[in-house]
Amino acid sequence: MLSSVQRKCISIVGGEAFAEGLLMSYDAVVIGAGHNGLVSACYLAKAGQKVLVLERYHTVGGAAITEEIHPGFRVSVASYSCSLLRPEIIRDLRLPDYGFEVYAKQPSYFMPFPDGQHLFLYADNRAKSKAEIAKFSRKDAEAYDRWEEFWDRVNEVVEPTLMQPPISLGQLADRFAAAGYEDDFRRIMLLSTTDLLDEFFESEQVKAAMAPQSLIGTSAGPMTPGTPYIWLVHAVGRAIGSRGVWGYVRGGMGSITQAMAKAALDLGVEIRTSAPVAEILMESGQAAGVILESGETVRARAVLSNAHPQITFLRLCSSLPSDLRDRLERHYRTSGPVYKLNLALEELPRYTAAPAEVPPEVVSSATVDIAPSVAYLERAWDDCKYGIPSRDPFIEIYSQSPTDPTMAPPGKHILSCFCQFVPYQPKGRDWNDGLREEFADRVIDKIAQFAPNIKNAVIARQMLSPVDLEARFGLVGGSIFHGEMTPDQSYNLRPISGLADYRSPIPGLYLCGSGAHPGGGVTGIPGHNCAQVVLSDLPKL
Questions:
Q1: H helix or E strand, kind and range, residue 109
Q2: Distances in Å between the alpha carbon of 261 and those of 58, 79, 320?
Q3: Which long-range contacts (CB under 8 A, 24 or more apart) does 445-448 make?
Q4: Is the predicted pLDDT of residue 1 greater than 60, yes or no?
Q5: Which of helix, strand or coil describes residue 271?
Q6: Per-residue pLDDT reduced to its tens digit, 307-326
Q7: How many CB atoms lie within 10 A of CB 190?
Q8: 65: CB partners within 8 A, 6+ apart
Q9: Could you tell me if 211 and 193 are in contact, meaning their C-beta atoms sit under 8 angstroms apart?
Q10: Going by DSSP bridges, is the β-strand pair 24-31/51-54 parallel, antiparallel, or unpaired?
Q11: Which of 8, 74, 284, 393 has its CA 20 to 30 A from that of 303?
Q12: What is the pTM of this model?
């Protein structure tokens, strides 16, 4: 069934002008109707510009999309939780007026351990979290205050740098120094997650609970230097109000982009779905619009690409300086370690480590991480480094259906399994030779070690390997962030030096997607920042 936004988009492009293939002209054309593309379009339209968004898929959303995987079972196909969407963008685009609603997970995290112990964490109740941590170490319960204060300090410095073109890493270091936090800069940029955790905690279980957020979507293990910066990326969100609180979007992640599309349409943006772009139109050395795969030409003074940087420059640009092409091909790291498994279930997992008095609906309302130790995570990454899908994978489990009955039939449930680590190109195998199914079995087997009922509960499954993420969402190499987000590809080095201010060497061509500062995640920041740069440039184009 088509959403209201899909129907409205289709009605927009059904007119005679497009049907007859007449040449259309805009102030700006945006390639890709993912969240950043839609945010850019909205800000440009709010400033009075005539904007067209072109999307290759049959609906808007990009990787923030909700779809049915089995009759009655709806899932957030790729992106699955919300925290990072900036409150300024939510306010400016009036997203709640268009159906956007986000609510916190309660509790925040549940960690089952193989010996039957467990750990709950509560983002909105530090005292309860400390009581849980004290079961493993009273010293660590006290250290948890210092841990949270550390992240508060880091965010105090970093957050003001996000909604603007990137500063250099040197300037960022100066900001930390000016605030008296030089040691914190060392921690997030130079240490490994293992080193950082050792500075605060002694319990292996507590360290295991803290480690995963530094590895999400990243080709690195906890012993890899720079991974605390990934933790920071996931700690800066305020979509729900308080820093670092994660939650569900009512109706799934597609509700974010559906709301953005409705806002865009009301601002006068035109959106065309099933309209893949074949080439960026060049005239006199600058971008002058796009040519669609259908052969249609659309002219525009500015072209904003929400696509991956390698797609933008290596596939859509007919001419590019050879040094830039070489650096994008060889220097930009964009191989993702993620496998997404979405399940339709007869019933929720029943974790043997969960307290008997806590209902499964409450346990599964939290993020459930299968990551028994830091060493376990490092071994999972070790497999991937050598081309082997992790024999004992890290699994982050979300289930929205206990708190949002629109996602599954009555009494049934959905489960989202975000899994690491898997290689894009497995050694001696291919994802299409049965490996996709084998790894799904491996994930379910691993969950069954903690929740034995899961095997008989599965009704249907959707399996997305790195090659599927690339084919479906344009995530080159399977990288959910449009390229690694470690310090060497952040700030003025994102995506590479010389391309970091949203402008490109081609006048009139801009990057507005996750390959631009500050990177991936459903933040909307690259889209917002790029639109401001385009607005400053439009009088000169």
A1: strand 109-112
A2: 14, 17, 32
A3: 446/370, 446/392, 446/393, 446/395, 447/349, 447/370, 447/395, 447/397, 447/417
A4: no
A5: strand
A6: 999 999 999 998 888 888 99
A7: 14
A8: 59, 76, 77, 78, 79, 252, 253, 254, 257
A9: yes
A10: parallel
A11: 8
A12: 0.94
Which residues neighbour 434 within 8 Å (Cβ) at sequence distance 6 or greater?
Answer: none
Beta bridge partners, 509, equal 303
Cα torsion through 422, 427, 431, 432, rounded to 10 = -170
Coil, helix or strand for 517? coil
Pairwise CA distance, residues 67 & 361, whole Å: 22
Q: Mean pLDDT lowest for which of 139-153, 323-337, 342-356, 378-392?
A: 323-337
Give backbone dihedrals phi and psi of 48, rounded to 5 degrees, phi first.
Answer: 95, 10
End-to-end Cα, the chain, rounded Å: 41
C-alpha 247: how far from its chain's center?
Answer: 14
Residue 395 forms beta bridges with which residues?
Answer: 370, 419
What would the two tokens of residue 403 be? Answer: 């708190």
Amino acid making up residue 364: S
Between CA 313 and CA 328 the distance in angstroms is 8
Contact 394, 377 (CB under 8 A): yes
The answer to which of 7-16, 173-182, 376-385, 421-430 has the lowest mean pLDDT is 7-16
Q: Which residues contact 74 (CB under 8 A, 6 or more apart)?
A: 66, 67, 68, 251, 252, 406, 407, 408, 414
Return the structure tokens found at 386: 């050598």
Contact between 146 and 200 under an 8 Å Cβ cutoff? The reply is yes
Nearest-angstrom CA–CA distance, 339 and 78: 10
β-strand pairing of 109-112 with 367-370 = parallel
Residue 104 φ/ψ region, left for φ over 0, alpha for ψ in the -120 to 50 degree band, beta for the rest: beta
d(CA 193, CA 222): 5
Give the start-end residues of each E strand in 247-350. Answer: 247-249, 270-272, 277-283, 286-292, 297-305, 339-345
pLDDT of residue 540: 87
CA dist., res. 254 & res. 65, Å (int): 4
